[in-house]
């Protein structure tokens, strides 16, 4: 059966699109994003036709505003100390009357950052210190939109040469690209940053499935590749960072197992592989448990969600110690492809709690048979995606899912945890499934999920739409200036410009509502040369900020953010932690203040490595974050 499904996935590579009128974008103009519009329902009758539920629709409450125009702004101030908590629903329902934040009607703005990013960003990772975004897809198609410098790559097992790059480093300020050479296929791989900020990538397709790759941080660094380092092939697997900075990698097609990633240059044997029956039990006819959602819990255990079930695994004893209730209403993992994130971990000053709450948020997905209907059935049927958002505190063994309704259905989406702790739900489609040409109805409108509320209004806000459809294989990165980089989208087995949804190489930046120009007065500047950038667990450290006017400590929030490895709607190791403020020393220099903070207590709360430190004032992030390193 495993061989059957592998052949089934590979067959589309040889499939020729026939008998269809394809949707195409208007002529592209450098520096200007254009509106995507369908020719009509008949244009969707590709590859045997299919049912279509309507044209592109922009939500009524998300009318676009000019890109640099602010909204109506006010500062909302509650009564300090009047907080209530409904213990039955978790931290998100804190009716926080002490919340003091600038409110705005601004729905965000989009800018086209780069017309040609070189590759379609199936995978995306922001790298620390050098402020470069690493984007890569796969070598299997032997084509991209950027050439390699000589020599070309020899294609293993053939007499062919591949002269295209499949991996690039992009300067997030200038857009300058540097192509990187890959020999082992990274298609649908996994990854994470190590303690020193290097990317450690695992798995992929074919000759890359058992490969470990490392990319260091320098202007001339190239990939170092170690084929055969993993004992099992890891295609559509998930990598998680442990409290000591080591990695585990879970699952992958045909391998319901996990293993620890070996040190650089070493190889695992089959004795290093642990069978994981949970991945057997959660396997539907069409999988729906690939790219499981995996997060390190604040108690050192591992939370794993696959399909519609979730467990806590002890990584030392290899025993499942708890299973949570089933999440209803469909499947959430590939190819149903919902998205997930770890919600902010909130620390108190002089933190001494034995267990720090940690919650997962899972949004969207599709019915269990969505892939079967869209990919295997003729004519294709594109089932509606899920409108659910569900959250669970997995540090509590009696937790139950709390389910909310999003403003619209979404699959193939992404979830970016913003510096303030709110979540940007972006990219994706409203119907269908993951797979080649298996989804319809791009969901162009991002949605902002409010992590905390004052007890009034909706937790969701529909934001201004993009003009570019971001479907299967889209990605994101939260940037140091608090914008969000948006890239990728490829529903085609190769690079196609005339398909229903063309292979997308344009790169955008989105400015969330907190970047309303009318709120610029609240943006602080971190004085990096006067701030501590190497942290030790539990110890005090100081961050210096400069801004206009008198600063009220009650309006300050300091967070650290671990940039994730993003692919297929999964953001591996994304983690935002709000730090406890111990002291606030005003006026150490004109318009300058010192914030004394406590670093997280241990690696279960914050794994060792690099984080972006943000200072938010009135709910508005600082001008630019500072990279800090938590030492082991």
UniProtKB/TrEMBL annotation:
Gene3D superfamilies: Galactose oxidase/kelch, beta-propeller, Immunoglobulins. Residues 62-83 are annotated as: Disordered. Keywords: Signal. Residues 529-630 form the Galactose oxidase-like Early set domain. Residues 62-75 have a biased composition (Polar residues). SUPFAM superfamilies: E set domains (SSF81296), Galactose oxidase, central domain (SSF50965). CDD domains: E_set_GO_C. InterPro entries: Gal_Oxase/kelch_b-propeller, Gal_Oxidase_central_sf, Glyoxal_oxidase_N, GO-like_E_set, Ig-like_fold, Ig_E-set. Residues 122-514 form the Glyoxal oxidase N-terminal domain. Pfam families: Glyoxal_oxid_N, GO-like_E_set. Residues 1-20 form the signal peptide. This is Galactose oxidase-like Early set domain-containing protein. It comes from Gossypium mustelinum.
